Amino acid sequence: MAQPWQPLLDWWFGSAKSPDEIAADKGKLWFGKRHDRQAQERFGDQVEQALAGGLTDWAQRPEGWLALVLLLDQLPRMIFRDSPKAFSGDLRAQALVAQGMAAGFDRQLEPIQRVFIYLVLEHCENLAVQNEAVSRFIELTREQPEADRAVFEDNLDYAERHQKIIAQFGRFPHRNAVLGRESTADEIEFLNRPGSRF
C-alpha cells in the first residue's frame, strides 16, 4: 500500500535518476509559477492540514518528513504566492527540519531531496540559520561525484546569496511589500538592483 505522502514526492521529484536529470525535468515546477494552480488542486487540502498542525505522523519516517516539509515550506509559496500566507508554514517547517536533522533523517534521503530540507534553512530570516544552510550545502556539494556537482553548486550559490542579504539587512527586503513591512532607504536601493529578488 502506497504511503499517503508518495503522490507528492512523485510529483515533486519525478522518475528521473540523476540529480541533473531530475533538476532539468522539475526545475520549472520548483522555481517557476506555471504550476501554482496544479499545486492547489492536487495538494491544497494537505497543505491546509499541515499548516493547521496536522499530518504529524508523517514526520516519523524520512520520506514522510520530507513531504511534510514540502507542504509547509515549498507549496505555500506556490499556492499563496504574493500573500503573507505564503510564509505561514515557515516556523513549523524550521522546527520540523531541526528535529529531523537531529535524528539524521536528511542523510537518509537522496541528495537532490536534501536540497529541499536545507532550503528551509535558506528561507529563514536569521543569520545563524543562514550560516547553517551554507554549511549544509557546502557539505552536500562536496559529497557528490564530480559529474553530479553542478546542480548542487548552483544551490550553494543561491544559499550564499541569501546569507549575504540576511547579513546585510537582517531580513529579506523582497518580502517587505507582501508582509506589510516598510522598507528602509538601503533596502529600496537594494531592491532596485537587478537580481535582488528571489
From TrEMBL:
<dbReference type="InterPro" id="IPR010323">
    <property type="entry name" value="DUF924"/>
</dbReference>
<dbReference type="InterPro" id="IPR011990">
    <property type="entry name" value="TPR-like_helical_dom_sf"/>
</dbReference>
<dbReference type="Pfam" id="PF06041">
    <property type="entry name" value="DUF924"/>
</dbReference>
<protein>
    <recommendedName>
        <fullName>DUF924 domain-containing protein</fullName>
    </recommendedName>
</protein>
